[in-house]
Design goal:
InterPro entries: Ald_DH/histidinol_DH, Ald_DH_C, Ald_DH_CS_CYS, Ald_DH_CS_GLU, Ald_DH_N, Aldehyde_DH_dom, Aldehyde_DH_Superfamily, Succ_semiAld_DH. The protein is an alpha/beta fold and about 475 residues long. It is about 35% helix and about 20% strand. It is built from 14 helices and 22 strands. Strands 14-15-16-13-12-18-19 form a seven-stranded mixed β-sheet, with helices on both faces. A six-stranded mixed β-sheet has the order 9-8-7-10-11-21, sandwiched between helices. A three-stranded antiparallel β-sheet has the order 5-6-22, with no helix packed on it. Helix 2 runs antiparallel to helix 4. The protein is globular, with a radius of gyration of 23 Å.
Amino acid sequence: MQLQNPTLFRQHALINNEWKSGSLGDISVTNPFSGDKIGNIPSLSVNEVKQAVEFAKTAQKTWAAMTSFERAKILHQWADLIDAHIDDLAHIMTCEQGKPIRESKSEIDYANSFIRWFAEEGKRIYGDTIGAKNNQLRHIVLKQPIGVCAAITPWNFPAAMMTRKVAPALAAGCTMIVRPDSQTPFCALALGELALQAGMPPAVLQIVTGDAKTIGSVFTKNTCIKKLSFTGSTKVGKLLMEQSASSLKKLSLELGGNAPFIIFEDANIDKAIEGVLASKYRNAGQTCVCANRIYVQKGIYHEFMEKLKQKVNLMSVGNGLDNPDIGCLINHQAMQKTQELLQDALNQGATLITGGTPHHHHNNCFLPTIITDITQQMRIAHEEIFAPIAAIYPFDDEDEVIRWANDTPYGLAAYFYTNNHARAWRVTEQLEYGMVAQNTGMLSTEVAPFGGIKESGFGREGSKYGIEEYVVTKYWCLDITD
């Protein structure tokens, strides 16, 4: 790990502003492209995680007592340090996650946008004064920090998924404990180091590493933790929700997706193709909001397919540090699932247009792929692909494609391309998704609410709505008579 600032590479958990080892040994972290070992992280015990919770509980009272302006100053100092170390942070991310270095830099910038946004949004947590029925009473609504919070973040966006949860919590006056994925922990730990350098008070931000079940059991059952935020699979999200029932903690769950990407005949085809490339192949297709089912109206289907194939065949694949168009998949299991989904479709009659094989020189790299002639009996029609495979479906009319797009238990993101304004209203209103993008393949931003419906979860991250997840509403009824 060749860094300009070697102090950013931390191989310990961050507890009460100290770097700690774990009592259960170490977990090895490897580079998904080369297979080389990067380093180790400690595996913490239940008692060690509980100790972090106690530290957070004590720190929360002092942190909440600070003004929002005082908290914002520290958050901005943190953000300034992240900007100053973007090259090192991106290098760490690419080494542990595999995405192209330019995508890593883009993610660090995106991650930092949440810190700056919520540093200011924390100053705008407003209450209300409600008109009373008689002049003896006053009705006041207060917004207060919910308390100690915990977050479980995924491997595919190890920096952005952390700051999208941490920044609003800290801005609202909560303390936060983060458990990063053990495949990509070093980005989170580097951000923790910069938080210390920014003057973050003890135990306001802690990062615990180790077994997911061990740490998850503390997060869900410990009554001192008032809020848990999770990004990951629907299966695990349901389990966390079930385990949290005994403590009735507040939850935010950003879960699986099966995003439709609809292209109508009146769309700008070239623009739609650029949107598909951005949405489908970013991070090797390993995003919860990437295009999973691409629907193309029959009048433009053949032209679209030919142009898309030409673009895809020009894409490079390889080591993220060499800045290719597509990096590697996260591990061998991801490669195995990719091949199984594709083979299942081909065995049942799907047509391979291009790609379809692992890269013959690079570990865990899969060539950008296009398939068509897909039926509802194929696994790929229903499962989240999480790989650089574009599944294309021709369709006849608007009613048909809306029906197909909504035929899924998931409801995270949807995309469509059209220049018909009346259709745009109809489609947006009928799509059963928490986020809808028109004429663009990129919808994520710190200024708008991110989140899904149905089995894609609940709660929102980003925007003015994101900080509401970390406050409680208190009603104060005051009799002003002596």
